[in-house]
Amino acid sequence: MRRLLPVSRAGRALTAGVALFATGAAFAPVGAAAASPAPKSPNRQARDYVALGDSYASAPLVPTQVDAVCARSDQNYPSLVARSRSARLTDVTCSGATTEDMTASQTDGVAPQLDALDRGTDLVTLTIGGNDIGFSTVLGTCARLTSGDPAGAPCRTHFTDTGTDRITEAIGLTGSKVAGVLRGIRQRAPHARVAVVGYPDLFPDDGVGCTSSSVPLAAGDFPWLRDKEKELNAMLAREARHAGATYVNTYAPTVGHDLCRPAGERWIETFAPQTPAAPLHPNAMGESAMAGAVETALTRHCPHR
Prior knowledge:
The structure is a single chain. Helix content is 34%, strand content 9%. The protein has eight helices and seven strands. It has helices at 14-22, 55-58, 77-85, 135-146, 154-159, 166-188, 221-242, 284-301, and strands at 48-53, 65-67, 72-73, 88-91, 123-127, 193-197, 246-248. The strands form two sheets. A five-stranded parallel beta sheet has the order 4-1-5-6-7, with helices on both faces. Strands 2-3 form a two-stranded antiparallel ribbon. The chain is globular and about 55 Å long. The termini are far apart.
């Protein structure tokens, strides 16, 4: 039986698989150790906000990078939300993170993300799941298969050739892991408002793709990839609802700004970014749009908190 989605721990960041095919080199954050969380202050006027998650939250390569190990930007959506709310931010988001890294050390010097929580935490945001389903491997495979059938759907065929959609299966299996993370958050920060932040629109919502050397995907794979992302977000929304958390829909407000849009209009970069960002990740405009979605969701569901 074929293993579902083989992904090495070293290559789990969403950038890794796609960059190998787009530029010939994988993005890997290097440099100094991760910054320590900001110390708690006895002054409780500013709310304590902890940001958890993967590279869609940490914003690799978006200026200015403040943590080279986790590829974390001070213009990521947690930073923007914290500034808007005058909150005291502890940002432990890290590129490559999976649900496993919420309770285990991701790499040397990077503590389990849930260690940043305590009973004084007021707000938690979480973006996770993309690396658990091996999306970097999926996209790298799609790019590799495109030349053999650019008008068809070779990636969809590859991942459904056993009669089962293996990405759909992986999303289902990840649901219980996300549920476990949400339970862990509640145990450590019982008084916190928890927001599960979904993934923004990567591919054209109408399913009509683009032909470009910087987006090496087959025409028939665009709608399939779009549907897989929607399935991932639907799972996150379901688990958030079951856990009593707020789900933040970042997909709807980013429709029309996918990777097929021209530079300046796209908020998700291509396999070969023209704006500072990791491949197939939000640029600064995308992170700003995600921050806006978080603010809208928090205000709508709890206007006085």
